[in-house]
Design brief:
Layout: H1 5-11, E1 26-35, E2 39-43, H2 52-65, E3 72-77, E4 85-89, E5 104-108, H3 111-114, H4 118-131
Parallel strand pairs: 2-4, 4-5
Antiparallel strand pairs: 1-2, 1-3
């Protein structure tokens, strides 16, 4: 039996390569934010025109309102198995999120729609608090 160079080195007790996790990192095309390592928030196309400053203000306020740490914009997710909540704002479930069968998936209007009135903000927050994130 012919051993690869990697197998030969392992037999000698040398392991110089970092082993990849069984699940590859997921790379996002959409705007995705992570909080507390277990909750992701996906923004839809309707919110592309919203300024970055307004998005940051919305996310900081939202995090404070639901008792979470701040939301961080991410391009890829290293540990998808840790995700247990997915919040969709004005978008459908992206294909890469379909693998999260154990996650609670909640869909709401876009950020623009939520911020359009005091009543819509209150309804959105009450729905989130009912989820017990």
């Amino acid at each position: 039996m012919i051993l690869s160079k990697h197998q030969k080195l392992q037999e000698l007790g040398i392991d110089i390569w970092k082993k990849r996790s069984e699940q590859e990192a997921i790379i996002f095309q959409d705007e995705v934010y992570l909080t507390d390592r277990n909750c992701i928030l996906c923004l839809g196309k309707k919110d592309e025109e919203v300024s970055e400053e307004d998005k940051i203000f919305f996310l900081k306020t939202l995090a404070k309102s639901i008792g979470k740490n701040k939301f961080l914009k991410i391009n890829k997710l290293e540990n998808p198995e840790l995700i247990n909540n997915i919040l969709l704002l004005g978008t459908d479930l992206p294909q890469y999120c379909e693998q999260y069968v154990n996650s609670k998936i909640s869909s709401y209007g876009s950020m623009t729609e939520i911020c359009s009135s005091k009543e819509s903000k209150q309804q959105f927050l009450s729905k989130l608090k009912a989820l017990d994130l």
